[in-house]
Amino acid sequence: MAETVLSVRDICKNFGALRASDHVTLDLRRGEIHALIGPNGAGKSTLIEQVCGTLKPESGKILIAGQDVTQLQTADRVRLGLARTFQISALALEDTVLQNVLLGAIGAQGSPYRFFRNVTANRQLREVAELALQRVGLLERAEMLAAELSHGEKRQLEVAVALTLRPRLFLMDEPMAGLGASGAAKMTAFLRSLCHEAPILLIEHDMDIVFAIADRISVLVYGKIIATGTAKDVRAVAAVREAYLGDDGWGDNF
Amino acid sequence: MSRETVVNLVLLGSLLIVPVYARAVDDPFLITLSTRVAIFALAGVGLNLALGLGGLVSLGHAAFFGIGGYTAGILASHALNYAPLIDGIIVINGSRSMPVIWVTTLIVSACLALLIGALSVRTTGVYFIMITLAFGQMMYYFSISWPAYGGEDGLPIAIRNEFPGLNSLDPFQFFLIAYAVLCVTIFLISRLQDSAFGLALNAVRQSARRVEMVGIATFRLRLTAFVLSGMITGLAGALFADLNRFVSPSMFSWQTSGEIMIFVILGGTARLCGPVAGAGMFIILEHLLGGISDYWLIFLGLLLLVVVLFAQGGLVSWLAGERVRRHG
Prior knowledge:
- The structure holds two protein chains of two kinds.
- Chain A is 35% helix and 24% strand.
- Chain A is of the alpha/beta class.
- Chain A folds into two domains: 1-81 and 169-254, 3-Layer(aba) Sandwich (Rossmann fold); 93-166, no CATH class.
- In chain A, the strands form two sheets. Chain A has a six-stranded mixed β-sheet with strand order 6-7-8-3-9-10, sandwiched between helices. In chain A, strands 2-1-4-5 form a four-stranded antiparallel β-sheet, with helices on one face.
- In chain A, α3 crosses α4 (123-136), α3 (97-108) runs parallel beside α5 and α4 packs across α5.
- Chain B is 71% helix and 2% strand.
- Chain B has 13 helices and four strands.
- In chain B, the strands form two sheets. Chain B has a two-stranded antiparallel ribbon with strand order 1-2.
- In chain B, α3 runs antiparallel to α4 (98-120) and α7 crosses α9.
């Protein structure tokens, strides 16, 4: 079996009477795209926040590359190899595209505690930043303000920032949303090549994309993983059909 | 050269020309006014680092302005009385030398900012404003109730402290000292804005979770900015004490915090020379309108309202246009 890069082991998280994570166990293996799907309110966001460290589970463990990170802060988990792209872009919109990726380069390679030297003149950081922009096809936009980018370009910039981190794994929250058909196809191809560098845990609503791109799929319903496996395996599980039938009309996809 | 750089040079140039003219026509009062502008601008530059760049809306920067003033006052009073500050196994004497006082002020304000920051920087929004305000008020009441250094009456500095090679008693030379400190600080801040720290701090204000997600701990980043900010405002307080040759608890009052914030907002938050424009405007209004009516603050309030509503980036934005931070 391939090496496990991210391991979520039996985590529980309650909000009052609501079980947002109910003994969730999930593995992300090297080289794969693992999609996490589930209806709205199933606890996907809660799970992501726990992986990132903005929420702490009440029980269970989270391991990155074999190391227990359950008690670590977000920034420390990132230094161990976690990279996340946000569903709603969390970019510094008043800054240029280049400055946004430079921030990633500073976090990954440099130190933010340099007070005097002009950071855009730092060749090493600049190379990392420009390479990331080039890979997502935004290099010619480098001097534009992030706020001036189109919705789809902001998504690409999110991915570029994650690339500067040279992470062990990517956690991508709906990277295709709002990209349009050709943009989504390009991003799909890009992610397929990217997952050989570092595996991707993908949260995605579009079932067509999920079934086309994912090596494995986990289905989260009411805080519980009800099925994990290949697209074929997951389709065959009766509980999955039940969870989706009549919900958002997604049942049509099965 | 960008339009903002031109505006900045014009602002700093005007602040130099006024006292040069005042000296030629022998108007020491105008020199003192210019010195006030330079010192208030310095206090504003300090707050602007926390508020403008870091998004830390501190309503307690009077704590640093005051602690700077009292550091200068206490050191000077001990030196003048020939009474050691600490008299025991180690003897620490007071000092009347500005460089010594400044270094001491920077250390003392850094310690105070570290303490206040460690407790307040974890919070955001209204909570942050309230905690910083509370610390400012705490310092205010402490200064009133501590009789050793004048308590409510304040602490006079009999003779202005000395700067090697200059005659600080001459108003123009003292202006030059304050002006030089201001210019050096502005230069350092301009470097900081383009540094890795500046980039990260600027990003924290816009999206803290983004900064966490590239592996940078935002608490430490904000705290560092808060400490640097407090040090600069503390230094301004030490100069202000020497300008007036008097330190009083009012330096710690929340009105002082409010005024420093007004310098920043009037001039333009996060604009390098915004506080220079803001403090200049404040002093000009104080003397033009203050001469007409005791209620001049009403007009200041109206002006502030106009700036906030119609010129969001303050005077500097109005003069220099929207900020362009593209470089590379």
